[in-house]
């Protein structure tokens, strides 16, 4: 069966998977969604014995139906190889009475590697399939992790350039060093004077700018996106929820058909949406627990049905979740609006003009699968501290938000369903905050000094991603104001300003 994709703002026009990947965002500003979510066509019994790569093929082939078996397998094998520091790619670790799905064993030690190690291959394959001759310019806004993971994937890939915008004072020291030391003649990094939402809105505006599109075209370029608005990011993320369930089954941690809860530390709503898609494919998932930090727009949304970004933006110790406009939520809104592109477009227009929208009662009733929760900075630090003292396991700040919200939910609801936590970053990436949470004595120390302390304490070897940047040369120093992103892109691409 051939699965087509349509925009969340207009259900008329349909494109193939490879076209959706190439475009990134639909021309009307909407996000591409599959016409329907396919049902898994392999059983859990079969999945139980599959490797990560085999699972990836079983899941992705149902979404990317215009890729041949050879093409898709080539993409998968090129992505999930020795760039990961473990053969199982995404290990499942039991910590106390919950299961952590460690998604940070790739090149840049955050979960973004799970999708961004394959996206460049999906993109270049899609370009070939659609006879694209122009260079693809990947434009990316990052709250810290996407930027590095995308550059690691696209560096020196022929026919591509990548430009990353990150908030100047909104990322950890390790994250910033990872980005500004990135090699590859086709990579550019820009620190913007603003926050992540400014970067993301700016990038979206560039995508929608038809004048710029013409200028790019004349210069031999076309834009695409490596943000999770690209369906090519989302589909590979469905894989690890299927894989995790099958492994829980294989390890006799659950019985066949037993439901599990999944808690996801959430920013742009991509990762948890992938879990929702996995549930729709048939994975026995009960509740999807959406964990926020103090930027708790989503918590308020699930409670009240009103999405309201008009509030103070808080810089937290989990910077990859410091987001007030969760772009992938649009895909869920579209679904609960009964796939009504016009209704969704009205709400998104309201969000753009007034910063808020309210969903109908009928729509809210369809959100039963989700539970929202949030953790304060203090609770997050406490979770890291307590888990370390109790079990010896060291979590990063984002994972700690999820761990905390998962425990709150259990206590408040009495729901004892077994819980999977999406563990999204290595503690080494946020070593300053992590060590301070473990012991206040570490406060104020240099992050790179603390790396060695963390190694002693956690007995987990310092990852290559951190070793590499210790002595690496800074290669990118470009900065710009949030309203000068267009000029900056033209400068980088050497298009007349
Ligand atoms: C990006 C990121 C998140 C948020 O994921 P979304 O898909 O944007 O919701 C959480 N934790 C870490 C470490 C991240 O890099």
UniProtKB/TrEMBL annotation:
It holds the Pfam family PALP. Gene3D superfamilies: 3.40.50.1100, Threonine synthase, N-terminal domain (3.90.1380.10). Keywords: Lyase, Pyridoxal phosphate. Its EC number is 4.2.3.1. It comes from the Bacteria. Residues 5-80 form the Threonine synthase N-terminal domain. The gene is thrC. GO terms for molecular function: threonine synthase activity. This is Threonine synthase. NCBIfam families: thrC. It comes from Mediterraneibacter gnavus. GO terms for biological process: threonine biosynthetic process. The modification N6-(pyridoxal phosphate)lysine is found at residue 112. One of its GO terms (cellular component) is cytoplasm. InterPro entries: Thr_synth_N, Thr_synth_N_sf, Thr_synthase-like, TrpB-like_PALP, TrpB-like_PALP_sf. Belongs to the threonine synthase family. Residues 101-420 form the Tryptophan synthase beta chain-like PALP domain.
């Amino acid at each position: 069966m051939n699965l087509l994709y349509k925009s969340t703002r207009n259900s008329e026009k349909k494109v193939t998977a490879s076209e959706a990947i190439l475009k990134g965002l639909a021309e009307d500003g909407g996000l591409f969604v599959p016409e329907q979510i396919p049902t898994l066509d392999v059983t859990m019994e079969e999945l139980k014995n599959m490797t990560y790569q085999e699972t990836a093929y079983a899941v992705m082939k149902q979404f990317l139906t215009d890729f041949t078996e050879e093409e898709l397998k080539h993409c998968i094998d090129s992505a999930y190889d020795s760039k990961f520091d473990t053969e199982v790619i995404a290990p499942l670790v039991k910590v106390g009475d919950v299961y952590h799905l460690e998604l940070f064993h790739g090149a840049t030690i955050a979960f973004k590697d799970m999708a961004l190690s394959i996206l460049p291959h999906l993109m270049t394959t899609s370009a070939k399939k659609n006879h694209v001759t122009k260079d693809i310019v990947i434009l990316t806004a990052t709250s810290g992790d996407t930027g590095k993971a995308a550059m690691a994937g696209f560096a020196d890939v022929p026919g591509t350039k990548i430009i990353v915008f990150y908030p100047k004072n909104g990322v950890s020291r390790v994250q910033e060093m990872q980005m500004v030391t990135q090699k590859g003649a086709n990579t550019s990094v820009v620190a913007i004077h603003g926050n992540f939402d400014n970067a993301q809105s700016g990038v979206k505006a560039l995508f929608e700018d038809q004048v710029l599109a013409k200028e790019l075209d004349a210069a031999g370029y076309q834009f695409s996106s490596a943000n999770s608005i690209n369906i090519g990011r989302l589909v590979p993320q469905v894989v690890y929820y299927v894989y995790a369930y099958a492994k829980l089954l294989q390890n006799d941690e659950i019985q066949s058909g037993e439901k599990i809860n999944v808690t996801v530390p959430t920013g742009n709503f991509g990762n948890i949406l992938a879990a929702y898609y996995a549930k729709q494919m048939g994975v026995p998932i009960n509740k999807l627990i959406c964990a926020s930090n103090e930027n708790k727009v989503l918590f308020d949304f699930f409670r009240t049905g009103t999405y309201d970004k008009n509030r103070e933006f808080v810089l937290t110790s989990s910077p990859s979740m410091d987001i007030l406009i969760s772009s992938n939520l649009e895909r869920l809104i579209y679904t609960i609006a009964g796939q009504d592109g016009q209704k969704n477009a009205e709400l998104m227009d309201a969000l753009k003009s007034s910063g808020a929208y309210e969903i109908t009662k009928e729509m809210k009733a369809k959100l039963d699968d989700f539970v929202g929760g949030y953790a304060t900075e203090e609770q997050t630090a406490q979770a890291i501290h307590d888990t370390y003292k109790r079990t010896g396991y060291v979590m990063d700040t984002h994972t700690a938000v999820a761990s905390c919200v998962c425990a709150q939910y259990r206590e408040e609801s009495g729901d004892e369903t077994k819980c999977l936590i999406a563990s999204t970053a290595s503690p080494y990436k946020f070593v300053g905050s992590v060590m301070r949470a473990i012991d206040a004595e570490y406060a104020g120390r240099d992050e790179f000094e603390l790396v060695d302390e963390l190694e002693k304490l956690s007995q987990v070897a310092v990852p290559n991603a951190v070793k590499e940047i210790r002595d690496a040369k800074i290669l990118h120093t470009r900065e710009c104001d949030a309203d000068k992103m267009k000029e900056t892109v033209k400068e980088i691409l050497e298009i007349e300003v």
